[in-house]
Amino acid sequence: MTESIVVTNVSKQFHTKSGDVQALKNINLAVQDKEFVSILGTSGCGKSTLLRIIGGLETSTSGKIECHNRIVDGPGVDRGMVFQQYSLFPWMTVSQNIEFGLKQKNIDKDTRKKIAKKYVRLVGLKGFEDLYPKNLSGGMKQRVALARGLANNPEVLLLDEPFGALDMQTREVMQELLLNIWQDSPKTIMMVTHDIEEAILLANRVVIMSSHPGEIKEVIEIKLGSKRTFETRLTEEFLRYKKIASEIIRSESAKIM
Amino acid sequence: MVKTLSQSKASVTDKKHETEELFKKKDKKKKSSFWKKVLVPQKRIPKKVSLTLSILSFVVIIILWCSITYGKIVGSMFVPTPGDTLKAMGTMFSNGFWSDIGITVYRVMAGFLIALVIAIPLGILVGAYSPLAAIFEPVFSFIRYMPASAFIPLFIFWIGIGESEKIAIIILGSLPQLVLMIANDIRNVEKSLIEVSYTLGTNTFDVLWKIILPKSLPDIMNTIRIVLGWAWTYVIVAEIVGASAGIGFSILQAQRTFQVDSIFVGILTLGIIGLIVDTLLTFLNKKIFAWNF
């Protein structure tokens, strides 16, 4: 198996008025090609910062990040990102949003249209192609953002609390959608979340982070098979994983309080 | 037996009172709930209601105007009647007021367009690139606090009282405002849009033209609309200080000959032109940038 993302000794310090804050301390992590890794942690543990550093949107204080053996020193098309706040381009229609990255790659119009059509269908937005983002619900917006990220075919997809702004029902639907997409055509995905069930249901591995300083506390291999469905979360194994993760998270939260 | 009957009667009337009281309370409740419904901060009201209220406010002003003039509360020396004003309007327009309007509009447009040609690219660059902001922003902020009208004597001294002086005043008045406000419009583009575009293959040059500019265009258009309104005030001041034609000049002329009704016509004309231009630009903005509204 080849390694997709390799994080080596990454630390990050923020300088604030009340002194330096160690956001990340000695993070070491290797993500395999086509692996789905969830990064789970309480708010403020630096999990989003880690993802942003991998995405090249922030720099680390020390350590290095490699993506397919290339040193990361800024954002790039090999690492697509989906944010919690959708970040759709409001002046573009749904299909224009999805085609944006392809257009940047100078892919011809016909191919672009074909690819966009495929991803529109994949995320279940057929019939909404020509709408502007303002006319979409939160869940639909996030479908577009996901399609936009996927259509560009990055080597790694980085998801920063992608369903955090959605209501419970929509979130579950979106989790199932992402699960199906990933099972149909596996892709390296790193997802930051604070939702324990979401982390376990979707991932091959769950990385649990602790805070102050942000460190990797535990890595749990999730062996729920490759044919997961929504019902998987009712199985005994799933609940066992949930119990383990919950206990670690709880001890972390208690530490902060 | 009798006693109980009267008692029961009394209790019945009591009940009646009670129910009446209850109804009254309900009525009160209805009233207060109406106000509660309407007076909610930032709550939208139906378009028809909004339009009716807007028209009503003009009607009230006209009624007040009529009642203080026709009711002889204020002398016609100071406030002309609506009738006299209309009459003055008729004579002014048949005596070449159109050309005054034309000249004023020309001055504003010429000055404002020149200001726009410089301010749009400069504002975009100042908003996008911090070194340029560091160079230009303090200077323009400083100029902004010096009223354009204070420069009129200096400009007359330098340029004379021709068209170029008026146009220069408008440029001086609107350019710094435009640059600073457009720079802010540019800066208001969400960081996450820029970040996500980087992960989709834009470079630092692309991002300005493909993300920041299209996102801020409706705001820039709105800035232009607001500053154009200010440009109107500068041209009038310039025309009042030294000109031989224009709306401001006619207002000054009317004052010299005690024609208060003509002053009213001049001011009203300015208001009406301003309102038309503003409405038109707002309409255009909503039409062109439908995705934003």
UniProtKB/TrEMBL annotation, chain A:
Domain ABC transporter residues, every copy: 5-236
Keyword terms, alphabetized: ATP-binding, Nucleotide-binding, Transport
PROSITE patterns: ABC_TRANSPORTER_1, ABC_TRANSPORTER_2
SMART domains on file: AAA
Any one Gene Ontology molecular-function term assigned to this protein's record: ATP binding
InterPro entries, per database record: AAA+_ATPase (IPR003593), ABC_transporter-like_ATP-bd (IPR003439), ABC_transporter-like_CS (IPR017871), ABC_transporter_ATP-bind (IPR050166), P-loop_NTPase (IPR027417)
Protein name: ABC transporter ATP-binding protein
Organism: Liquorilactobacillus uvarum DSM 19971
